[in-house]
């Protein structure tokens, strides 16, 4: 009986892992090496462009405003896909986050975003408050 229970537990945890990967996909489009990566509690500055996966329609962009978006990472100030998708990131790094509804806005419509939408964000980490850009990236270490 114990083996059957362990088998069911294993299958349940494997199924959760599959769901999690459908909720958040992280593609690093410009990798950067650094000593100090983003972590929960950091106030970060991010440029982004958000589009709907279904049709590619842009719904928001900090680039259009010319000002990066700042928030405290891991504090629930943004959608779960951002709080998790921007962890362990280096200044200057770019990522594309594909965020399913459960890590985005769920089954509610928000402005131009229909309920149940999968979102695609092209992101660029501009800075981590309190961490100097020049001291963070490996590019400086390469010049030494």
Automatic annotation (TrEMBL):
Molecular function via GO: peptidyl-prolyl cis-trans isomerase activity
Coiled coil: none
Keyword annotations: Isomerase, Rotamase, Signal
Keyword Isomerase carried by entry: yes
Source domain of life: Eukaryota
Top EC class for this record: isomerase
EC number(s) stated in the UniProt entry for this protein: 5.2.1.8
Signal peptide: 1-20
Catalytic activity entry: [protein]-peptidylproline (omega=180) = [protein]-peptidylproline (omega=0)
Domain named PPIase FKBP-type: residues: 41-129
Gene Ontology, cellular component aspect: endoplasmic reticulum
Family matches, as SUPFAM superfamilies: FKBP-like
Function: PPIases accelerate the folding of proteins. It catalyzes the cis-trans isomerization of proline imidic peptide bonds in oligopeptides.
Name under which the protein is recorded: peptidylprolyl isomerase
């Amino acid at each position: 009986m114990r083996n059957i229970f362990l088998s069911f537990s294993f299958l349940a945890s494997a199924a959760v892992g599959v769901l999690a990967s459908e909720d958040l996909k992280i593609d690093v489009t410009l990798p950067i090496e650094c000593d100090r990566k983003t972590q929960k509690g950091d106030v970060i500055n991010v440029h982004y462009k958000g589009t709907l996966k279904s049709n590619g329609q842009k719904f928001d962009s900090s680039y259009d405003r010319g000002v990066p978006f700042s928030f405290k990472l891991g504090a629930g100030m943004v959608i779960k896909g951002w709080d998790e998708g921007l962890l362990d990131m280096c200044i200057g790094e770019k990522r594309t986050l594909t965020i399913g509804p459960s890590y985005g806005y769920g089954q509610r419509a928000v402005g131009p975003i229909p309920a149940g939408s999968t979102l695609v964000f092209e992101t660029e980490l501009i800075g981590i408050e309190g961490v100097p850009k020049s001291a963070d990236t490996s590019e400086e270490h390469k010049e030494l």
